Amino acid sequence: MVEYGQMVDLHFKILPAFEAEVRDQLKEIDKVYQRVEKRSHDFKKNPERTESLSYQLHNLYCAFEDLFRIVAEHFENSITDKERWHAELLKRMKIEVEGIRPAFISEDIYVILDKLRAFRHRFRHAYTYDLDPDEIELVLEKAIRLKGIYQTEAERFLNLIKKGGEENSRRD
Fold first, then answer.
1. pTM score, whole prediction
2. Rounded distance, CA 34 to CA 46, Å?
């Protein structure tokens, strides 16, 4: 594994602001999870509840995507493939950028988030078809599984970044 003590000094100097942004976005994700949980009860019995839950699952992925943009804007350049930027941004988060940053998410989380990303895409473009409660239930199960693991991954990432920044400042 790469030691992140080789990070650019600028990254260490703005680390507190970066960490604050990440933590603030994690709070936003928690708020969306609260709305998902509230709307998930008996959603199959009521089309309006199904729609409401679907909208919150859509929002959940958007909140994760906002988190990934914070990371990408801090450590990387822009994404060049404008047609596939949603998929490209997610893919970047599972990749370690040697000497710059560790991977933000594991392969397991990537797979779950990719399912949520695909659902979000279908939901946004679902003008002419009804939402399938069974499909929503599968997406909800993925979201619930993700809830139990994403915070640990975010903490791991922040700890690795801090560790690298501290090692970098000791060398100065």
1. 0.85
2. 19
